[in-house]
Amino acid sequence: MSGYDNLQGIRESVLNVMNKKSRGRPKKIFSPKVAERALIDLEVEKDAKIVRKLESIAALAKYPIETVAAIARVSAKSIVRWHDAYEKDGIAGLRHKPGPPRRSKLSHEQKTEILAWIDGSRTSDGEPVQWTLARLRQAVHDEFGVTLAINAIWKWARKEGRTFSPAELRQRRSAARQLKTG
Prior knowledge:
This protein has helices spanning 3-19, 32-42, 48-59, 65-72, 76-89, 108-120, 133-144, 150-159, 166-181. By secondary structure, it is an all-alpha fold.
């Protein structure tokens, strides 16, 4: 699809939205002062995502929300949310606010046990093993009944200072042998 075709599609969707008859409850009235403030902030803002939101808020002074939403390719509800957040908190209200992190599927004790398996190159039964991410994933599932993504195991192990490179595996094995003999 060329840039021209894309523009043509946007124009058509805007015309379709503008030709629809409005029914239902009254529309929310947007403050022209907020749109004016958005235009001022647009001059200094560099973040493309924030600029897009500010442009949409500023456009509300001249165009119906459905038109602005169609051009921005978001829902009218998003435009209302952006407007309200900007009206309340300014540019800070438009920035992404990540939620709380997910709770771990494993307890602290289970993680400590898994690290002991890795460090000792042993399974939960004490059998020697050369750990790979796939083997560790299966062992965690068998031992604790928890299914983890391989990427999640890799990220957690790296955060804990463990990797599964052949060089590190050799170091861990030699350290374990030295503990047995020493």
